[in-house]
Amino acid sequence: MSIPDSLDDNAVTPPIDVADGLDRLGLALADPIRREVLIRLLRGTHRPSDLAAAIGTSRSNLSNHLTCLRGCGLIQAERSGRHLHYQLVSDQLAGALRALLAAAETLTPPTGSGESPRAAATE
After folding, report:
1. Nearest to 21, CA basis, from 93, 104, 100
2. Which residues of 41-75 are buried (b: 16+ CB within 10 A; e: fewer)?
3. End-to-end CA distance of the chain
4. C-alpha count within 13 angstroms, C-beta hemisphere, residue 74
5. Distance of CA 81 to CAs 41, 78, 84, 85, Å?
6. Can you list the alpha helix ranges (DSSP code H) found in the chain?
7. pLDDT tens digit string along 31-79?
8. pLDDT value at position 17?
9. Domains of the chain (ranges plus CATH)?
10. Which of 67, 63, 72, 122 has its CA nearest to residue 97?
11. How far is the C-alpha of 90 from the C-alpha of 119, rounded, in Å?
12. pLDDT category, 18, cuts 50, 70, 90?
């Protein structure tokens, strides 16, 4: 995996377009349902009703999350007859998500309070 040419080695902050992309990825990954949708879409296309059933959420709740992911530019829908099938927008995104999942598996638990950042954030 390479670093985009738009990132200068001496830059303090990434260019606006790269920062915007990172913000959209962060927004998508910050929510457990959206993370689950993205992980499931790594395995291929899915209909919303199948995603909702597999994740254990209502169709209306899932619809809100799909709208967010579409707005972030991470997923797209294709119509097949009367049904929509959702998929990731690119193989590059799929590779990045796989790399993040692999990196997350190698992280050691946080030190200090004994709480995970996720548990601390929900209090």
Report:
1. 93
2. beeebbebeebbeebebeeeebeebbebbeebebb
3. 37
4. 28
5. 20, 10, 8, 10
6. 16-29, 32-41, 48-55, 59-71, 91-106, 117-121
7. 999 999 999 999 999 999 999 999 999 999 999 999 999 999 999 999 9
8. 85
9. 16-101 (1.10.10.10)
10. 72
11. 32
12. confident
Query: What does the pLDDT read at residue 70?
Result: 97
Residue with tokens 């709740």: 61
| 15-38 per-residue burial string, b: 16 or more CB within 10 A, e: under 16 | eeeeeebeebbeebbeeebbbbbb
CB 6 within 8 A of CB 18: yes
pLDDT-derived band at 7, boundaries 50, 70, 90: low
Distant-in-sequence, close-in-space partners of 32: CB < 8 Å, separation ≥ 6: none
1 residue type, one letter: M
